Amino acid sequence: MMEGLLRRIEEYVRRQPAPKKRQLVARLARLSRTALRVIGPFRPSLATLARISGTDKFRGHNYIPAYERFFSEYRNRPITLLEIGVGGADFSEGGLSLNLWEACFRRGPIVGIDIFDKTKLTRGRIHVHQCSQVDREKLEELARKYGGFDIVIDDGSHINEHQIETFRILFPLMKSRGVYVVEDTQTSYWPAYGGGAVGTPEYARSAMAFFEGLVPGLNHAEYLPAHRVEPTLFNLAIQAIYFEHNLVIVLKGDNTAKSNWDLDAWAETLEKGAVAQNGTLSQGPSSQAVAAG
């Protein structure tokens, strides 16, 4: 019922001439902020809050199911959230998703940055700063100001080079057990944004290729001695990486666990030995077969 009403409102607004459309969008944004503040304390679902907020994270991108899964444990905790890109196209002043996060996470600051001056959207727990998403000095200053970030959502320029550099800057500044999100990763396949078709040199420099390249590091402890490298911060602090349609989610946590194999002792066998059909190695530093599982 609510979804149908919202669609009818959107269709009505879409048919209006530009001056009236701008007025209607501003009025609806104010109404949605009020509605979110009223129902927020009752802890409705994130999907309900997203519908009311008007953010395209619900209609258009369908990110909300993933956010329901990964953000649910944070709703009762005091957290600091940073969103890159405040929005403001299509006659909106922006800040719709910031309103959503303020209603969803009831404790702690909601921080937004934008390359354009959207600081007028600052109010209550929402703090908006004018800042490029690749301005390392400014981002580090904001991290110090707010004591690090629990959740970072990159909805900025969608330029591949920016998505990669922003992650390199901000991920080390996040708190442990943090969630880092990159939206709109479809631009990895679009040359205009610095991406390209899979298999091309352009794709090799894309954000998707970058995050795919982090996956082997999840198992850095399993590298055999001849292939070991000094673990990077990403190797040691990325606990999981999830890929969904147009979305990458990186979980920060401890990834320093050692292998459950004595790889130094078994290195030669694992390099050159044969594995039986039942998954066991018949040769090794002892006469006893060791199950691969």
Report on the structure:
This protein is 37% helix and 16% strand. By secondary structure, it is of the alpha/beta class. The chain folds into 2 domains: 2-258, Rossmann fold, CATH 3.40.50.150; 260-293, no CATH class. The strands form 2 sheets. A 7-stranded mixed beta sheet has the order 3-2-1-4-5-7-6, sandwiched between helices. A two-stranded antiparallel ribbon has the order 8-9. The longest helix has 22 residues, at 18-39. It is elongated. The termini are far apart. The mean pLDDT is 85.
Task: Describe the structure concisely for a colleague.
Helix content is 37%, strand content 16%. The chain has 293 residues and is an alpha/beta fold.
